[in-house]
Design goal:
Helix content: 55-70%
Largest sheet: 6 strands, antiparallel
Shape: elongated
CATH topology of the largest domain: Outer membrane efflux proteins (OEP)
CATH architecture of the largest domain: Up-down Bundle
Number of strands: 6
Number of domains: 2
Order of helices and strands: HHEEEEHHHHEEHHH
Strand order of the largest sheet: 1-2-3-4-5-6
Oligomer: single chain
Number of helices: 9
Radius of gyration: 39 Å
CATH superfamily of the largest domain: Outer membrane efflux proteins (OEP)
Length: about 475
Amino acid sequence: MRTLSLPILFGLMIFSFPVHALSLHDVLQSSYAHAPQIQKAKARLDEAQAGIQEAQGAFDWELNGTASQRAGLYEGRYADTQVTRRLAESNTRIYGGYRASDNGLPVYEDYYNTATGGEYNIGVAFALLRDRIIDEDRFRYSDAVLSRKQQESEAYLVTLRTQFEAMSAYAQWLADGHALKVMQELVKLAQERQSAMGKQVAAGDVARIFLTENNQNIARREAQAADARRRLERSAQRLSLYWRDAQGNPKTPTVSELPPLVESMPEFSLNDEALRETITKAQNLRPEQIIINFGIEREQNRMALADNLRLPKLDLAVEGAQNLGRDAGSSAGEEGRVLLKLSIPLEQNKADGRVVASQARLESLEQDRRLLNDQIAADIRAVTAAADATAEEIAQSEREVKAADAMRQAENKRFANGDVDFFVLNMREERFGEAQLRLIAAQRTWLENLAMFYFMTLDKDRLVPNI
């Protein structure tokens, strides 16, 4: 049974914190609303939607027209206008139009002659073999739809990853801020002692060498505090990529906005059965898995299109026409036509090559899916194992902080009572500070593990707060 549930207690030094501290919720809210990565993913969704609209263009109504004027022995004129549309649901083409001539055409162009009022015509054409189930235009449309669905999952993945990175950046800034406060407190203790020791040296109660040594400790601690401040500045800049103002511009958090660490440590529990269920759910619902699934469907459609090329092309068209006005030779009256067009591929190299290529890509995608499932299981187990180890480290660090503080306070009492052992007192203070820094580092690791757990298990409610 693995159960992780930690009410984290921060240190024993007393710090003051602002009323309006920067919370994790604030950062995640800002990141979701303004992070460029997320905005870019949303733009890619619009682009994919435009791809669907473009593919639909193959099924738009289309107006075509031709006109001719002969010169020389024959001076006939001819004009033809036709509207056409392909139906997206099937490979069916409907069309209708009007054509007219002035009967000045040669006999070998008698087809173009019409009655004096012209000819109205309608027709419908079907693919009976090749292109009946799938064709290039319908493939492009369905591929655009699947691409849009893939992009939705990609946008979701980008959102989760960005929020995970924001939470990790917040954990680092939080830890670096508290580490700086620990170092500043150590500097403050040494500076206060310097003032008191100065009076004791003047009174002859303490040797001057202790004052010199304390000065050295102040300088060393101030250098350590300066290093801690530089680390905080770096982590604040990193956090500013996710903490933004209403216009989306980066905001650099300050030490004055630092919240208590205890308020930033959520709790979660996970036993072995829940771990197995979590892994199975993640393997089925991870955006990467859905992207692969849609990729497989797209490739299957591409293979169907390649198989389609193996078939003979047999098209059927049924047309009707009505001539108006006076007779124009063979063009008088109503007319009906049935047309068949046949084309048979004698070799299959093009189709075979495409089918083999699609089969190879499908196998590659299947291996991607297998690897992804293994990776998801390994990552979730790793992060929960890391959380176990970090929980133990935090508990040990808390005990170490309490013990170090007890030793420091005892040494302070001895020092106040005149039992001077400056070396031991300084060592107790620094051991106390080091214990606090280890506790802070462990708490930062815990929060980072939690962020990874939320990311891997698709805990959108934790990573994407309500806006």
